[in-house]
Every structure is written in C-alpha cells, then in structure tokens.
Specification:
alpha+beta; 5 helices; about 35% helix; Pnp Oxidase, Chain A; seven-stranded antiparallel sheet
Length: about 150
C-alpha cells in the first residue's frame, strides 16, 4: 500500500474520496476506528478551529513514538497545509481517539533540529513517506502529540 499512496493518482484521488469513505466507515464503527486504520496506525484528531473555535475532527495516519504520537500535515502532498495544522498551532490542546480510546494530548511542532531524526521514524512507519514533502514542494508540518 505504501507504494500506491505515493502515486500521483492516489494523491489526486485521496483527498476526493477518503474523507467520504472515512465518514461512512465512522457510521458503522461509531467513530472508533478510521478506515485507514486497517492499513496503518491511525487516529481521529479532535481540534478547535483556529479562527472559528468550532470543534473539528480529522482522521490521520500517525507514527507511534513511545507514549507520543507523530502526525504530519501532508495533505496528500497538496500545495497547502491542512487546516488541522493551523488549528494545533493556535490551540495545541487536543483529543485523539486511538482504537476507540480517547486521550487528551498537547501538540508541539517538531523543532527544526529534530526533523531529520523524526523523518527516519516516520519512514520506518510508512516507507517513502517523505516523498510527499518533495511532491508538495513545501516543508510539511510535523507535530508531536504528547498525552496529558
């Protein structure tokens, strides 16, 4: 699956079909496990909107790092950062659901000095993932979610 996710076709189709598929799956499993969780470690991130202060929900792939979780704002290698990254920057207190368990977390951007070591971990979790950054033509925002 990792090779498929790096294709131009998937990067084009993913943002068009995955959100709808995730919503349908959520109805059947009561929002406990994202569809993508069948393939990779996945979580549901609950944030507060940066501008609206409205609750937001996003299904994401994550990389376990001890008790912490690493999430990357790849946006299917799109040219824009996903909204959830702005939400975490403004409101770093969030909640994640992992396998049906709710966990309060505090988000922090991975510092520049740690990015290369973090990419090694991310690519061990999902080979070739950094190609999203190259394809996007922007530096992807990486956050560490630490349980509170």
């Amino acid at each position: 699956m990792a090779w498929l996710s790096r294709t131009r076709l998937f990067r084009w189709m993913g943002p068009r079909i995955m959100p709808g598929l995730e919503r349908v799956t959520s109805v059947f499993n009561h929002g406990r496990t994202p569809l993508s969780g069948a393939l990779v470690p996945s979580l549901v991130l609950h944030t507060t909107g940066a501008k609206t202060r409205e609750p937001r929900r996003t299904e994401l792939m994550y990389c376990p790092d001890g008790a912490d979780m690493l999430v990357t704002g790849s946006n299917f290698a799109g040219e824009r950062h996903p909204a959830w990254t702005a939400n975490l920057a403004v409101h770093p207190e969030a909640v994640v659901e992992v396998r049906g368990r709710r966990i309060e977390v505090l988000a922090s951007r991975v510092p520049e000095a740690e990015r290369e070591a973090t990419w090694v971990k991310l690519e061990a979790n999902w080979p070739g993932y950094r190609k999203y950054e190259r394809a996007a033509g922007r530096e992807l925002r990486i956050f560490r979610l630490t349980p509170r």
